[in-house]
């Protein structure tokens, strides 16, 4: 343990992101770093509390050795910190930027002080390692002669590919998009996760021996049976890409889009041409309504702000969460408090108020004779919670409103994986139409086919996708070799 009194001497200091009004002028990352001494002070705040809930699977799904590397950060032993970090996490440059950091809500210091800045510490360790040239290709010493196909190049597929390649198997990743990364590439926008970082990691993995096949839609232009026949194992890591719709009157109007249509077209155009090709949904000068909260809704707000939208409203059916921890809940840092994400901050900086409207239900999209969206009709709802029952809502009579809108983005979550590939492989699905494969074993009803990530667990987080990719790789290795030494 490093500095026993660090948590009493230093207060929590998070990185100060670029100011909202400045950063909406471009799509560059808004994340910044503290200087080295300040970062080391933040590492010193870790109490080495004895029961590190932060690194339990609740706090960190990949079981990062958090107190150990916090201490190494405090001591300025950056290379050792990096080596500890790489033991558990294939892609800390992603989680250090986009993870909602359940580790910090589990931090014991959070009982009476703000939690340790675990996520920012992680990000600094890995960014310094890249800058110092420590991230060199790790070419496996020997090859097993076994071939594994990974379908889908999101964090689940990529972490599995990384592990399996290190175990000496010949790994090919098939991706239907033109770029590798799944939602790391075409979901999470550039200002939150710079695509140069994703390309940098992809290049490293290619140097290490992994083959990437882009524009390869398995089940459409790559016959899936051929893939199964040609490989010793196949991993389905195709994500949960089916968006939840809002089938109210007017849904067909021009201007109503799924969030992913907006986000993907924007990032693709940004990378292809710096948005010069115009092949994206442009929110410039438009009145935008984002329906649904969460990361996806917030990313739609941030992207619209960068286009220069004329107005922004964000509807949320759920009630407004509390801003402070209430006396009746025992968690150190309650994770469901109202938090301002970057898009909310940016909208508030430009338009002067929080864009969020809570407890509001969309009833209808309104349009003109040309079939273009002109507005959204809503009603307020009241939430009712009876003891022992699930919360339910009732519409509040007389609370109907009409909101002007030129663009609506639907960010209502995802229903699960697309079924076509699953049907072709004749895989069983669970009650939520995810691929059925027990957590811990990951094998599907086809003995050569495994499943991991959002395709198996449903819409989740990057860190859970990495957890599942690593764990599925271990089971694939065990199936191919009889034993496994993969962590
Ligand atoms: P995905 O990342 O979805 O990757 C699946 C890949 O499979 C895709 O590239 C898809 O094209 C490919 N594919 C599908 N079918 C085929 C086929 N037949 N042939 C070939 N390829 C195929 N999580 C966080 O932790 N933090 C965040 O800030 C965050 N922000 C998010 C923002 C948005 C807009 C969205 C939608 C999600 C966000 N998430 C975030 C969730 C997170 O991105 C996902 O949980 C995670 O990416 C799931 O990883 P995965 O590998 O299972 O699937």
From TrEMBL:
InterPro entries: DPD_II, FAD/NAD-bd_sf, FAD/NAD-binding_dom, Glut_synth_ssu1, Glutamate_Synthase, Helical_ferredxn
Domain Dihydroprymidine dehydrogenase: 24-131
GO BP, one annotated term: glutamate biosynthetic process
Pathway(s): Amino-acid biosynthesis
One Pfam family per UniProt: Fer4_20
Listed name of the protein: NADH/NADPH-dependent glutamate synthase small subunit
NCBIfam families: GOGAT_sm_gam
Keywords in alphabetical order: Amino-acid biosynthesis, Glutamate biosynthesis, Oxidoreductase
Record-annotated FAD/NAD(P)-binding domain positions: 147-312, 389-469
